[in-house]
Structure formats: structure tokens, C-alpha cells
Amino acid sequence: MSRLSDRTARRTATVRRNVKLAAGTSGRARLTVFRSSKHIYAQLIDDTKGETLAAASSLEKTTREGAKTGANIGAAKVVGKLIAERAKEKGIKDVVFDRGGYLYHGRVKALADAAREGGLNF
After folding, report:
1. What's the structural domain count of the chain?
2. What is the arrangement of strands in the sheet containing 95-98, beginning at the earlier edge strand?
3. Are the CB atoms for 25 and 48 separated by under 8 Å?
4. Is 31 within 8 Å of 18 (Cβ atoms)?
5. Which of 32, 56, 66, 117 is the most exposed place for a label (fewest CB within 10 A)?
6. Contact 63, 77 (CB under 8 A)
7. Angle value at C-alpha 50, between 77 and 38, nearest 5 degrees
8. Which residues pair with 42 in a beta bridge?
9. What is the reported pLDDT for 80?
10. Are strands 51-57 and 95-98 parallel, antiparallel or unpaired?
11. Helix-, strand-, coil-residue percentages of the chain, each rounded to 5
12. Looking at residue 22, what is its pLDDT?
């Protein structure tokens, strides 16, 4: 196996393990983060029903206004605040944070901190 596929396999295993351990329920949804080289995405998922309750990304028009790119800490903060607002609208306060195998650093940390400031508890 090449080093890249080993890294990908490790990340996939980490994600599967975390989802199994901290599966989101209707009372406590799972806040999952996905980041690419150009954008960052966040979703609130109810794993018992298998449905997405709310989503936000740096691709949306409201988040792109005044931002150079969707791949920086500023964009992650905006997405974190936006997902917290949408969670409030749905009546969700408590979530389980799923960092998706990414290090809790940089954009992932900025999104989590902004979501906490927006009123989510995790």
C-alpha cells in the first residue's frame, strides 16, 4: 500500500470508530465536519433516523459575501455560527462533535469554537 492509501484507511477507520461510539440521537445530534482544500462543510445528523437535520457550508451565498476563499479560518468561523443558528431554529442545543478524523486544529477548531459561541453545547 502506498502511504496515501494508508493515511486514507487510517482516517476512514477513525471516522467509523467515532461514529459508532458517539452516534447522534434525536436528543443529541452529531455535528460532523468535512473540509476540502477549497471549502468547509458542517452537518447536524440524527443517526437513529439517518437524516440530516441542518447543514451549512462555505459554498452558500451568505457565507461567501466578503470572503476571499472558503478555505480559511474566517470562513470556518462563519460556518460555525451559521450551523449554530440553524440548530437553534430546530431546537437543538446539545450535540456530539465529530471531527471526521481531522486534527482538532486550524479550521476544524475555529468552526467548533464558533459553534460553541453560537450556543451549541459539546
Report:
1. 1
2. 51-57, 40-46, 29-35, 95-98
3. yes
4. no
5. 66
6. no
7. 30
8. 33, 56
9. 96
10. unpaired
11. 45, 20, 35
12. 67
What's the whole-model pTM score? 0.83
Reported for 44-49, long-range contacts at CB under 8 A and 24+ positions apart, including other chains, are: 44/83, 44/86, 44/87, 44/90, 44/92, 44/95, 47/19, 47/23, 48/23, 48/24
Residue 122 counted as domain residue? no
What is the full per-residue pLDDT of the chain (122 aa) written as tens digits?
Answer: 566 678 888 888 887 787 777 666 667 888 999 999 999 999 999 888 889 999 999 999 888 887 788 889 999 999 999 999 999 999 999 998 988 878 899 999 999 999 999 999 98
Q: Which residues form the domain of 15?
A: 3-117
Residue type, 48: T
Rounded to whole angstroms, how far apart are CA atoms 111 and 19?
Answer: 19
Residue at 113 is within a domain: yes
* C-alpha radius of gyration, the chain, whole number: 14
Is residue 61 in some structural domain?
A: yes
